[in-house]
Structure prediction request, 355 residues.
Amino acid sequence: MSDENKQILNEASEEEYVLSPEEEQRLISLAETILKNWEVTVTQIEVVQGGQMALVWKIHTSEGPICLKRIHRPEKKALFSINAQNYLALKGTRVPGIIPNKHGVLYTKHGPFLFVVYEWIEGRPFELTVQEDLEFIMKGLAEFHTASIGYRPPDGIPIFTKLGRWPNHYIKRCQQMETWKLMAQTMPEDPFSQLYLAEIDPFIQEGRSTLARLLQSEYPAWVSELKGSPTLCHQDYGTGNSLLGDDGQIWVIDLDTVSFDLPIRDLRKMIIPLLDTTGVWNEEQFHIMINAYESISPLTEKQKEIMFIDMLFPYELYDVIRERYVRKTPLLETELAEAFEYERIKSGALNQLIK
Prediction:
């Protein structure tokens, strides 16, 4: 998807969640109620993020700012991630520390939601067009992965893992792309749908052949190896969830979606969408990112082969199609044509690396 259309979608999303003065005051009142569970002297409350997803407040206190957040996740998943963040913070990893409530508990439940208070981290987001920032953010991801090894949730809290589930994810997405062909057939006057029908089959086949290659690789063996000592994957790592702190260090924030998986899942979710914004395969940028990560956490050749195979799957194309048929975003056929072309370019580059 082009930068222009991504910006349009982002702006539309932001407009959708602009708070009225009444809504903002309601959220401030909610924060005041929740904060009674903590030993803090509040001087001011700012609503940082409102809307339907996670709610975030910046709480000014007599001892400096802190962060209050409503976790927009099912309770069991929230408890897995809250305890993961506490584990990392206590061992010195650069994630915001969790401030327990008056009862020494890491969260307070209010209605169906869990509320957590964190240290407030001052800093700036990374600019990924700057090589130094790009290398910094990849090194931060490697440090996060390395530090996460050893985490186990407390007794009674379910383990959330995606280890071994990639084949099912591939199968499901290929099936959905087949199903969307039926939807496209009902829209003969829609240029997007007609282009989809004309060109999608080779990409569905690419997805299926990627599944076969994954199963023939060392993927099953690596999954089996990591089950005894898994790595946490952030699942949503990037400029929005990392900061260059005022202390000159990288901080990883918003750990709500963490789960166990192969660390290269985060690399794929970071690298491939970034390259997609350029419309070409930027081999130099690709290697800068991987080399920066490996300067902290080296990968074996077999592990890199698994990563390249996973990157072959048409995830970005799938997301564009889902945007059109599931979220009903009015995308033009040019957006789909660009996605098809990027997948062709990406496939050629990655197949060379795998060979």
Notes: Residues 1-15 have pLDDT under 50 and may be disordered. The beta strands are 42-49, 55-61, 64-71, 108-110, 113-119, 123-124, 231-233, 242-245, 250-252, 259-261.
